[in-house]
Design brief:
With about 300 residues, the chain is an alpha/beta fold. The protein folds into two domains: about 60 residues; about 220 residues, 3-Layer(aba) Sandwich (Rossmann fold), CATH 3.40.50. Helix content is about 30%, strand content about 20%. It has nine helices and ten strands. The strands form two sheets. The protein has a six-stranded parallel β-sheet with strand order 6-5-7-8-9-10, sandwiched between helices. A four-stranded antiparallel β-sheet has the order 1-2-3-4. The longest helix is centred in the N-terminal third of the chain and has 14 residues. It is globular and about 60 Å long. The protein starts with 9 loop residues before the first strand and ends in a 9-residue tail after the last helix.
């Protein structure tokens, strides 16, 4: 049976060469989808796992191997967010794992637990990287709070509200916003006592790409500072980044921007966003506060 892929009500649990086992966030039922979103099994997790094992054997599907990029979308979005970027990543030699989760139905921590299960299912993959957009970056950081994997190498964060989203501050009490964006939308605020300040800084190499207009006015008159209409450039920054870049682009279109795609692939391969020039790292606060060594007189 052809499906729509479960973009807002299903969470991925397992990935294998494009095949996915998902769990429904309302009923708790599971299903197995092929790479074209056709359903091949429905019911319990065991039923779907057994069917996938049968398909592996009957079709003689080889084990996964090599390098993977897990692409994680933002709120009210889906893995289709990375449709334009995907060919460039595949051409660079990466297996692209589009992680879908019901972003408007669950909290950030619950999404992180689903991500953990997907990463655990990538047997045979030697190297794991991330490309994350908006809320997807916070889901990844929440995953790192409870889990980890020695295969993880690099990550590129696109318009991630690492310091909270000012628009969420303005709209959090609005009924339509609460209904549409769900519990994760409430966690996007810039509250110092909220969820975001508790999320860890990745220990592996990562880069920041922010969208902006290029001057202080930004695109959105409702929030102060340069912004991509949704997230300010300042909010997208995160201490410890190995490189950073601001590109003139709107928030929604960052993953499809040609300059973003080129910079993303370059960082995953070489650890730098620009072809020429020095990297622009964001030092950790402890590093920035280290006293300068002076000679004794």
């Amino acid at each position: 049976m052809k499906t729509l892929g479960g973009r807002q009500f299903w969470a991925d649990l397992r990935h294998f060469h494009g095949w996915r086992i998902q769990r429904n966030s309302f009923t708790g039922h599971h299903r197995l989808l092929n790479p074209k979103d056709n359903r091949h099994a429905f019911g319990s997790l065991e039923t779907c796992l057994d069917k996938l094992a049968e398909i592996k054997q009957s079709r003689e599907l080889p084990p996964m191997s090599g390098k993977a990029v897990i692409a994680i979308h933002g709120i009210l979005r889906s893995s289709k967010t990375f449709a334009i970027m995907r060919p460039a990543l595949e051409k660079a030699g990466y297996t692209v794992v589009g992680f879908d989760y019901p972003s408007s139905q669950i909290e950030i921590g619950e999404a992180a637990n689903y991500l953990h299960q997907v990463i655990e299912s990538l047997e045979g993959i030697d190297e794991v990287n991330f490309v994350v957009h908006s809320l997807g970056g916070l889901v990844t950081r929440a995953y790192l709070k409870e889990h980890g994997d020695p295969r993880i190498k690099r990550m590129v964060m696109l318009g991630v509200p690492n310091r909270g989203a000012e628009m969420a501050d303005l709209l959090r009490k609005n009924y339509a916003f609460r209904l549409l964006f769900g519990p994760a939308g409430q966690q996007l605020v810039t509250d110092h006592n909220g969820v975001i300040p508790t999320l860890p800084i990745p220990e592996f190499e990562f880069a920041i790409i922010a969208g902006g207009r290029g001057h202080a006015a930004g695109f959105n008159p409702l929030i102060s500072g340069d912004d991509d209409l949704t997230i300010t450039v300042e909010s997208a920054q995160l201490q410890g980044a190995a490189d950073s870049l601001t590109i003139r682009a709107l928030h929604t279109f960052l993953p499809a921007n040609a300059q973003v795609i080129e910079a993303t692939v370059r960082f995953l391969q070489a650890g730098r966003l620009r072809q020429e020039g020095d990297r622009l790292p964001i030092p950790r606060e402890t590093e920035a506060r280290q006293p300068t060594e002076t000679k004794a007189t």
